[in-house]
Amino acid sequence: MEGAALDDVSTGSDSDYSKYWIDWFLNTKGNEYFCEVDEDYILDRFNLTGLNAEVQHYYLEALDMITDNLDEDSLDEKVRDEIDKVARHLYGLIHARFVITTRGLAKMLDKYKKAEFGRCPRVLCNLQPLLPVGLSDIPMNKTVKLYCPRCEDIYNPKSSRHATIDGAYFGTSVPHMLFQVHPSYLPTKSGDRYVPRIFGFKVHDIAEQHRWQDRARESYEEKIREERKRLEN
Ligand SMILES: [Zn+2]
């Protein structure tokens, strides 16, 4: 390892090239929502059951790339790029399975505690940290959204880099499973609601006043009509 580090220094190349594919992936701008899937989780083929059906080709090569077992020097650039594309998709699919395991939930909780998924834009949620959530577990269907456990609503990620991430890489269950396993992190719901006002008066009250005035006018007009009828007869 020391020798490798020295080599990097002496050649001065590969400065921002990580030796580990997962490190590289996680450090790529826009991938901040993803957590690190444990290597032994990926190496246990039982966990990946059925995923080979999700990619057209290069499944094994992509898996080797993710676990740094692919001899990339023997590949031409086009093939390498193709495998890299499959690897990123595959990592997302593995990620969706991993984040609902005990280890995965703990990692997502860590990121949630640091508000790495951002905070609820709703004023009355008082900067409540958010959690990523998918609206579908089927890939290439819906992009990822952010769930606020205080107002129980979902929001679009602010950055377009995050807004285009496949929601299936997180799945529909993460936030809800997280709070089931770690209920102490569920924020207390407040009954605070924004009340629309016009010059300090609740809009509702103003509307109520208007309705009352309308009713009063109607009954007054009705009275006049009756009075007229009575006089005519
Ligand atoms: Zn909220």
Automatic annotation (TrEMBL):
Superkingdom of the organism of origin: Eukaryota
Pfam families, sorted: CK_II_beta (PF01214)
GO molecular function: protein kinase regulator activity
GO biological process: regulation of transcription by RNA polymerase III
Annotated InterPro entries: Casein_kin_II_reg-sub_N, Casein_kinase_II_beta-like, Casein_kinase_II_reg-sub
GO CC annotations, alphabetized: cytoplasm; protein kinase CK2 complex; UTP-C complex
Family: Belongs to the casein kinase 2 subunit beta family.
Subunit structure, as described in the record: Tetramer of two alpha and two beta subunits.
Function: Regulatory subunit of casein kinase II/CK2. As part of the kinase complex regulates the basal catalytic activity of the alpha subunit a constitutively active serine/threonine-protein kinase that phosphorylates a large number of substrates containing acidic residues C-terminal to the phosphorylated serine or threonine.
Full protein name: Casein kinase II subunit beta
Organism: Hesseltinella vesiculosa
